[in-house]
TrEMBL record:
Molecular-function GO terms, alphabetical: nucleotidyltransferase activity; thiosulfate-cyanide sulfurtransferase activity; ubiquitin-like modifier activating enzyme activity
Organism: Photorhabdus khanii NC19
Entry GO CC: cytoplasm
Record domain THIF-type NAD/FAD binding fold: where: 26-262
UniProt signal peptide: none
InterPro entries listed in its UniProt record: ThiF/MoeB/HesA, ThiF_NAD_FAD-bd, Ubiquitin-activating_enz
Protein name, as recorded: Dinucleotide-utilizing enzyme possibly involved in molybdopterin or thiamin biosynthesis
Length: 269
């Protein structure tokens, strides 16, 4: 690395060393990151963690999408909120806290509850959508369909009980999509059963734990930076990664591109 570029007093100097370690042109990587625009859909535990990491690493613009207010039970894992913030909009407090950490950041707030696929059209296109919201149940399929229509890259980040889940990282025209493989089972039911399921799911609360959220966000952050900075291998392309916390185990679920997929199979490369 050129000693004329590296400055130990620069706020991003340690990140710069990491990019150099991976064989990238550190200056070019940081310049790309500073010009990048990322959208985070869901400002809960994962959204808090990953927005903090992106903001402090110099991402130029972050759009935060949510309509929820902060509740006292959020504070165990939504690390940028405090007791005095309870009953405030998540996006308002998140904007405040991110700007405390990087005043050069451009934050765009989108107060939006996504109830239908068409609601996604209210979100501006960006370099990357990070989907960290876990409701409604159909959200990831709506995002997948919408992003292929609009050629919008996205990354799904979440958890299943004790498992931090990262991926797939979807780049329309290049990778497989969420629909290419049976990642989750489909279900078909009549209207009455669907109404009952909707009622049950509306009161369902998934188990969540701070470390599970944090691991998912941190691991995903590595792939996000590679994509934005144009260096290294994106590990969650064409796969979903599961990191267990009850035991030492990492597993992957491969998602090969399905040429017969009715969402992306006919997409031009």
């Amino acid at each position: 690395m050129s000693s004329s570029y590296f400055d130990s007093d620069d706020r991003y100097s340690r990140n710069v060393l990491y990019y150099h370690y991976l064989g990238a042109n550190s200056k070019e990587v940081q310049e790309k990151i500073s010009k990048s625009n990322v959208t985070i859909i869901g400002c809960g535990g994962i959204g808090n963690h990953i927005s903090y990491l992106l903001a402090t690493s110099g991402v130029g613009t972050i759009s935060i999408v949510d309509s929820d207010i902060i509740e006292i039970n959020n504070l165990t894992r939504q690390v940028l909120f405090s007791e005095e913030d309870v009953n405030s909009l998540k996006i308002d407090i998140l904007e405040r806290e991110l700007l405390k950490r990087n005043s050069e950041l451009n934050v765009k707030k989108v107060n939006l509850e996504i109830k239908h696929k068409d609601d996604l059209s209210k979100i501006e296109k960006s370099d990357l959508f990070i989907v960290s919201a876990d409701t409604p149940f159909e959200l990831i399929r709506w995002v997948n369909d919408y992003c292929f229509e609009k050629k919008q890259p996205y990354l799904n980040v979440g958890y299943i009980n004790d498992i931090s889940v990262i991926g797939p990282f979807v780049i329309p025209g290049e990778t497989a999509c969420f629909n290419c493989s049976k990642i989750v089972p489909d279900y078909v039911c009549d209207d009455e059963l669907q109404d009952n399921l909707t009622t049950i799911n509306s009161d369902f609360k998934a188990a969540t734990f701070p470390s599970v959220n944090g691991v998912a966000a941190s691991y995903a952050f590595g792939d996000v930076m590679k994509f934005l900075g144009g260096y290294g291998e994106i590990l969650s392309k064409n796969r979903r990664i599961g990191i267990h916390s009850r035991k030492i185990k990492i597993e992957t679920q491969e998602i090969p591109k399905n040429e017969r997929c009715n969402i992306c199979g006919l997409q031009p490369k």
